[in-house]
Amino acid sequence: MHTKAKQALTIIALSAVAMPAAALAQSSSGDLMALSVDALRGEMTTRYNAGLALTLDGAVVSADNPRFLWANQAKAQCGIALGFLKTGTKDPVSVGKCVDAANRMNEVAVATVVVPTPPTPVHNPACDEAIAGIVFYEWDSAQTPDSATPTIQAAAHNLATCGWKGLSVAGHADRSGSDAYNDGISRRRAEAVAQLLIGQGAPGSQIEVTSFGEREPRVPTPDGERNPQNRRVEITVKN
User: Fold this and answer.
1) What digits encode the pLDDT tens for the residues 24-80?
2) Which helix (DSSP H) or strand (DSSP E) does residue 194 occupy?
3) How many helices (H) and strands (E) does the chain have?
4) Cβ contact 74:101 at 8 Å
5) Cα separation of 132 and 167, whole Å?
6) Within a 13 Å sphere around the CA of 60, how many CA atoms are in the beta-carbon half?
7) Whole-angstrom Cα distance, residue 233 to residue 135?
8) Counting Cβ atoms within 10 Å, is residue 5 exposed (0-12), middle (13-18) or buried (19+)?
9) Which residues lie across from 209 on neighbouring strands?
């Protein structure tokens, strides 16, 4: 009986994705929050585009490391941050998650060993969220904006991979219209998002559509006041 020696080779490689060199630095979300809305939008767009490029890269998708998951998370969270910025709002939660995911997707420590070992399961932090996404709307509109596409794609993807029982899609309106009008438009917004989720592969049987009109504002306002934070559809997780 004799034992064969196992040789291991560790390869450390610097990543080179579609982000500019300055954006590859480990950025602080606190520093970015100090930027103007336009400058912050540029930072979020850069990270969103980089995440999108990696999720479409076959080598990244098939690689035995968590880079694809972080790229997918960066794309989703940066997309949410861009949705807020469209209304001029700098949301620290989505900005922080965007920066963290983008930084992680660019970390590089890939180990290759002669004797393969089973990969360590990678936990997707999005699976722990109670809210899968929020879509904001223009005033007097039930047309889902193009900027909501990353949010809807991420929610549909995570429904399939996180083991959720389903998604609750709830429409809301601000207080600028009558109760009857707001009930109707909030319902149309929710139904529009539900159809887009189905278009991304989410089973219709796992989607529950509800609407609340102006009764559950995200930001309390006087009656009759327009507020972009209240014109929304919330996609919440059913466990």
Assistant:
1) 344 577 789 999 999 999 999 999 999 999 999 888 888 888 899 999 999 999 999
2) helix 179-199
3) 7, 6
4) yes
5) 8
6) 21
7) 5
8) exposed
9) 169
